[in-house]
Amino acid sequence: MSTDVTDKTPAAAPPGKSGAAGGTSLLQLVLGGLRRNMRQYGMLIALGLIVVLFQIWTGGDLLLPRNVSNLVLQNSYILILAIGMMLVIIAGHIDLSVGSLTAFVGAFAAVLTVSHHVAWPVALVLCLLMGALAGSAQGVLIAYFGIPSFIVTLAGMLLFRGLTEILLQGQTLGPFPGGLQKIGNGFLPEVGPNTNYHNITLLLGLVLMAAVVWQEVRDRRREQEFALDVLPGRLFLLKLVAIVAAILTLTMLLASYNGAPIVLIILGVLVVGYGYIMRNAVFGRHIYAIGGNLPAAKLSGVKDKKVTFYVFLNMGVLAALAGLVVAARLNAASPKAGVNFELEAIASSFIGGASMSGGVGTVLGAIIGGLVLGVLNNGMNLLSVGTDWQQVIKGLALLAAVGFDVWNKRKSGS
Amino acid sequence: MAGPVLEMRSIVKTFPGVKALSDVNLTVRQGEVHAICGENGAGKSTLMKVLSGVHPHGSYEGEILFEEQNCSFRDIRASEQHGIVIIHQELALVPYLSIAENIFLGNEHASRGLINWNETLRHATQLLRRVGLDEHPETRVADIGVGKQQLVEIAKALSKSVKLLILDEPTAALNDEDSAKLLDLILELKNQGITSIIISHKLNEIRKVADSVTILRDGRTIETLDVKAAETTEERIIAGMVGRDLDHRFPERTPHEGADEDAAPALEIRDWTVHHPIDQQRKVVDDVSIHVRRGEIVGIAGLMGAGRTELAMNVFGRSYGRYAGGTVLKDGTEIRTRTVAEAVGHGIAYVTEDRKHYGLNLIDTINRNISLTALGKVARRGIVDEHEERQVSEGYRTSMNIKAPTVFEPVNKLSGGNQQKVVLSKWIFAGPDVLILDEPTRGIDVGAKYEIYTVIDQLAAQGKAVVFISSELPELLGMCDRIYTMAAGRLTGEVPRAEATQEVLMRQMTKDKEVTR
C-alpha cells in the first residue's frame, strides 16, 4: 500500500525550519520530520522491520512474487473491514457485528446465485444493499435511539451469525458463478506482447507513479502560491523517491507473477477514496470532530446523529463487500465464515494509531495496522508456527504497538 | 461568646500561574454559623479545600489551628477524623445506591468485610430523623429530589461525628422551599452544638442563619463582620465584596450612543423560560427578555446559578435544559433557533464559558478547530480546500496573535488565553451578526484579557451585536454600553453605562425573590 497521497502532514514544518534548511544535513531533516510525526511513521517503520525480519527468517520466501500476491489476497477482506472500522472508532464507537455480517452477506450471495440463479452483477448489488440495510438499522439504534454501539453491535453479532446459519441451514453452499469468484481470486487480464511481466500491471504501476508525483508537485506548488511553508526541497525529493521506489517494488513483484489481483485494485480505490474523504471532505472532518469532543462538535452545529448514522451505514456496506470477497475466495458460503474478523479489524485500527476515546486515526494507519497483522500471519505460516503461538504473538504485537504509543505520548509530555 | 474553634492564619495557595489565596485569615468561634462570601473567583472554595485537606498540607503556606491543635491534613480522610466535613457544591452521592449505603459509603458498619445491614439501617434511620428526612433508608438516592439529597449529604456528615460542617453554596441548586428547610436544619444543628461554615452569596440567607460573615476578595480576607450588629447592612457587605478600583485594563472605547434607537434590535429575546433538564419542576430561566443592537456591547451580570449561561445555551439551539416558552427576533423578524445549525444559520454565535468541554476539540489542530463551524466557507461540493483553510487560519493566528509556531499545533498544547483566542477565531470565522460571549476571559492572564477586550471592541465597531456574559463586574463596567443583571433565573435590572457601578450591580445581582415580588 504505497498510496502515500493521503499523507501530507509532514509539510507542516515549523516556519523557522525552512529558512535554516540550507545549513542542516538531509539526515537531520529526515530525523526531525520523523520525530514530529512519530505516531504516523512509527508503525510504518515497524511494518518495514517486520517484513525485513521475516524475509530473513524465511530465507527470502516472504517477498517471493507468488507469496506477495497471496498476502494481498489473504488479507484483503480484513483490510476492507479495517477501513470502515477506523471510521467507526474515530467517531468514538465500536462495531462488533462485522464478522457475522460478512458471513451473513456471503450466505445471502450464495442463496441468490447458487440456489436462485440470480445473475452475479445483480446479486452483487443486492448484497451491498443488504449490507447498507444492516448497517443503517444498527446506525439508527445507535445514533437516534442512543443505545451504546457496543450493545447494538454485540446484538448484531449474535443476530447475523444466527441468520447466517438459518439461511445456510448449517451447510456450506457453493460454488459461485465465475464472475463473482474473480472478486476474491481473480487477476487483471493480460494483453499485449509477452514481456515476462504482466503488461497491464506494469502500465498501472507507471500511471500510479505519475499520478502520485504529479499530485505531490501540484500540492507543493499550490502551497507556495498561498505563501505557506513547504517541505524543504531536498526532503521533498527524498519523499518522492521513496514513494516511487515503493510503488515500483510492488509493481514488479506482482507483475512477475499473475499480475495485480482484482481485489488489490478495489482496495487501492477504497484507500485513496476514504483517505481523501477523511482528510478533505466536510463529512470526514465531522467524524473527527464528534469523536474528538462530542459536546463541542454539537455546539459548533455538527449534525452528530446524522454523521454517526452514516458511519455505521458505511461500515455495513464495507462489511458486505468483505463478505463477498471472503465467499468468493473460498468459493463457498460457510456458516463459520468471518469468525473473529471484527476483532482483527479492531486490532488493525488500534495498531494503526486509533485511540479508544475516538477522534484520532487515519485510513492509511488502519491499512498499515492490518498489514502488520497480515505479514505476521503469513510469515509465521511460512515458518510453520502453530496457530496457538500465532495468537500469542499477535496479542503481544497489539500490546506492544499500543504500549509504544502510550509511552511515546507520555514522553512528549501531554 | 465562646472562643475560636478554628483559626486559619496567613493562608497562601498558588496554582501554576495564579495566586488563588494570598494571606487569608479566618477565625470561626465555637458553635456559630460563619458565612463566607465574595465574588466568583474570590477564593472561597479554594480556602475550604485547603481546610478540608483536598489541597493537602504542604501544598499551601500558613497554619490551621482546629480546637487549639495545629493541623496538617494529608487528605479529606484526615480532616474528617478531626470532625471537619465538607459538603461540596456538586453532591458526591452514588445515585444507584440506597440512602443508607450512601451515608456509610467508605465508613461501613461491617465486621471482617461483611456489612451488618441491621446496624446500618438502624443507624441510618436515626440519622435521617435527625436531619428531618422522611424517607426509607433503602430508597435509591436517584429517586429522591435534590433537596432531599442535600439532607442525605448532611446525614452522611453527621455519621462521621462532625464538629465543623462546611457547606459550599448549599442552596444553589435548591428551590425556595427546600432552601428554607435546609437553612432551618443548619440552625437546628447549631443548637446541637455543631459549628458550620456556609459559603453563600445570597445575602438574605446570610442574614437569616449566620452569626458572622467573612468577606474575601481577590484571594484576600477583607473583613469579618458581626451579622447581628446593626451596622452590618447588605450594602455594607456588598461594598466589601466589590470595593475595587477600575484601572486602565480596558481599551478606550467610544460608548455606543442610542443613535439607532428606532431600528429593530439585532437580537431580541422575549419572555424566555427554561426548565432544568432533570429536575423539570425547577425554572432555571424565568421569563427573561433582553435585546441587543448592532454595534452595542450588552453585559449580563449575575452570580453562580443566575441562569445566564442557561439562557444563552437554550436560545442557542436548545443546547441546555428544556425550552418552556419565549421568542427570538433577529432584526425584528421572528426566527427559530431550535438546533445549533439553525441558530448559526441566522448569524448567531455562542462562545462557551467552558472552552475545554464545549468549545474545542483539544486533540485536533488550531487549523481544524477554527474551520469547523464554517467548513462550508472553505469547501466546494463537500470537499475542503486545505490550502484555503490553512490560509484562513494562518490569518487568524496572526491577527488574533495566537502564540503557536504553526496552525498545525494541537490546541491542548496552548495556554488558556491562546485557546480562548482560537475559540473566538472559530466563531468570528463563522461570520455572525450577533456574538454571545460567555465568560470570555475566564482563567486567562491579564495580558491575554486585554487582547480579548480589544477584539470584542473591534467586533462592536464593525457593527456586530455583542452580548457579554461575565462574573467580573469591572470587566462589564469597562466594556459594556448597557448591563442586565440576573438572579436566580430572573432578570433583576437593566443599567445604562452611565449609571452602572459595582455597588448598583451587586445589589441587583443579590436581589432575591422576596425583593422582586
Q: Assign the CATH architecture of the largest domain in chain A.
A: Orthogonal Bundle
- The secondary-structure class of chain A comes to mainly alpha
The N- and C-terminal alpha carbons of chain B lie at a distance of: 37 Å
Q: Helix amount of chain B, in percent? A: 25-40%
Q: CA-to-CA gap between the ends of chain A?
A: 31 Å
- Beta-sheet strand percentage of chain B? 25-35%
Average pLDDT of chain A: 86
- By CATH reckoning, the class of the largest domain in chain B would read Alpha Beta
For this structure, what is the CATH class of the largest domain in chain A? Mainly Alpha
**How is the biggest beta sheet of chain A arranged?**
none
Domain unit count of chain A: 2
What is the mean predicted local confidence, pLDDT of chain B? 87
CATH architecture of the largest domain in chain B: 3-Layer(aba) Sandwich
- One letter per element, helices H and strands E, the order of chain A comes to HHHHHHHHHHHHHHHHH
State which percent range the strand residues of chain A make up.
under 5%
Task: Domain count of chain B, please report it.
Answer: 2
Main location (chain B): membrane
Membrane topology (chain B): Peripheral membrane protein
Keywords (chain B): ATP-binding, Cell membrane, Membrane, Nucleotide-binding, Repeat, Sugar transport, Translocase, Transport
GO molecular function, one term (chain B): ATP binding
